[in-house]
Amino acid sequence: MDYKQIVDYLRKLKPDFKVDNSVFDSELRRTIEGITPLMFVLEYDIGYEYQDELIDLLLKQSDFDINFQDNCGKTALMYSIYYSDEYDEEYMDIPMKILSKNGIDVNIQDNQGTTAMMYAISNIFEDEVIEKMLKLGYNVNIKDNVNKTAYDYAEEKGEYDEEILELLKPKPI
Fold first, then answer.
1. Over the stretch 72-86, which tens digit does the pLDDT of each residue have?
2. Among 77, 105, 127, 159, who pairs with 116 as Cys (CB 3.0-4.6 Å)?
3. What global pTM score does this model have?
4. CATH superfamily name and code, 3-168
């Protein structure tokens, strides 16, 4: 599914959906921003009910790399966390859907050294997202470009209980 197909699909679901088609030229978007259709759907505010349905369709496709990084080094998982509305429970399940995709790498760092875990902690995500990333092998010793670990992010936020903090503590190497 490319950008034009996404827009056509949205127009069928939501006839009043208006957008300038030039924004969705897949070659232009890939060249300038390096994003995939999944990243686009995660970033663009189209309303949860449409976004959720499109994400399900895109995740069922087998011809894409779930760990693809945009020009800033961000993955679809990072987009799902970064662009989710932390105050809207509906959006909280989107990262869990992406985490369920085979081959997902939770240790990828963007150009700033930030991981999806660090984004999740910064956005005060539910413990289940954090625990799922840990189960998928998140390396708690990863440091970003300013030498901070996910534990440091959690400690700074002050929103996480001792159990989560203990799970995020860097391990001796």
1. 999 999 999 988 765
2. 77
3. 0.83
4. Ankyrin repeat-containing domain (1.25.40.20)
